[in-house]
Write a structure and sequence with these properties.
This protein is of the alpha+beta class and 315 residues long. The chain is built from 10 helices and 6 strands; from the N terminus they run H-H-H-H-H-H-H-E-E-E-H-E-H-E-E-H. It folds into 2 domains: 138 residues, no CATH class; 130 residues, Beta-Lactamase, CATH 3.30.450.40. Helix 2 packs parallel to helix 4.
């Protein structure tokens, strides 16, 4: 958008345009042509010298009221010219001062009124233009607020449905936790697997217990169905050293850990026992990569904190 177009949109009162100027000049010519014809037919071409108020006031006021100062001054100039040409030769005997006042007073009044009324018209138009811009802006703002309200409403409904269908409620977690005291080992392991899934929001994981020559499967998530190349039943000592050499969590969001986790999973959480030695490894096979933020790392650390004692106590 050019600067001229921007200026026109900002202040339509000043909008240029030769077509508009020609239209205004045509209207002025038409109005004074009609008045000249009436002057010739009714008063014999005296310029309405004996008519009070003068009909020449009509185009001056109309132009100033409708178009502003410029059109009003042009109309006043034409009215003054017609007045001076016609009224100067009206045949009335006057002295010099009377003639001077007679000829100059109407043009002076027309010019003053054209400027005063025209400026008032321009001020009114500018205020109206500003009001229109503010109204348009308010309409756009209302539209944006309406869209934002609709988005918030949809988000709120989605969150309510998510909360209503989320299994990680306090009552459900407590119910699962009570199964940790069950006498049946399989039921205890199922409860631990369910707690891990609830806390990590993923059922695709394997828990390994570290033994002398590597690590063996101790627990699997519900999404892990049997043995596969990416979910082995055992880990070699080298793999255990690479994934659980210390208590630092490995994950694919860190470039240096991708080689260690290649083909196995996306995150490895070492499980340290009471004496600080690593006794197990929680390996997640699938977690969305955008989930590896500080909050998720804290959650995984917390899982490792309560999972290690459960593994150590079941030895």
């Amino acid at each position: 958008m050019s600067a001229a177009t921007t200026e026109e949109a900002r202040d339509p009162v000043r909008r240029p345009g030769w077509r508009r100027g020609l239209r205004i000049l045509g209207e002025i010519a038409l109005a004074f042509g009609a008045l000249a014809l009436l002057d010739h037919l009714l008063t014999g071409g005296t310029g309405f010298a004996d008519v009070r108020p003068s009909p020449y006031w009509i185009p001056v006021l109309v132009m100033a009221l409708v178009y502003g100062t410029g059109a009003g001054v042009v109309a006043a100039a034409i009215a003054s010219a017609l007045w001076l040409v016609a009224a100067h030769g009206d045949g009335t005997e006057r002295d010099y001062l009377d003639m001077l006042l007679h000829l100059s007073l109407p043009p002076l009044l027309w010019g003053i009124v054209a400027v005063a009324v025209g400026e008032a018209t321009l001020v009114r138009k500018r205020r109206y233009s500003r009001a229109e811009r503010r109204a348009a802006q308010a309409t756009r703002d209302i539209g944006r607020l309406t869209d934002a309200h609709e988005r918030l409403t949809r988000t709120n409904r989605a969150l309510q449905r998510r909360v209503a269908s989320d299994p990680r409620t306090m009552g459900h977690v407590v119910a699962v936790a009570t199964r940790l005291a069950a006498k049946d080992v399989a039921e205890r392991c199922a409860a631990i697997a369910q707690l891990i899934a609830l806390a990590a929001r993923s059922e695709d994981f394997t828990v390994y217990r570290i033994v002398g020559d590597g690590a063996l499967v101790w627990l699997r998530g519900a999404a892990v169905q049997g043995h596969s190349s990416g979910r082995p039943d055992s880990l070699s000592p080298a793999m255990v050293e690479a994934l659980a050499g210390d208590d630092r969590i490995r994950h694919v969001a860190r470039r240096a850990d991708r080689i260690r986790l290649a083909g196995l999973g996306v995150a490895a959480v070492p499980l340290a026992g009471e004496r600080g030695a690593v006794i197990g490894l929680l390996l997640f096979h699938t977690i969305p990569i955008e989930a590896f933020n500080a909050h998720r790392m804290a959650e995984l650390t917390e899982i490792g904190g309560w999972l290690a004692p459960l593994m150590d106590g079941s030895a």
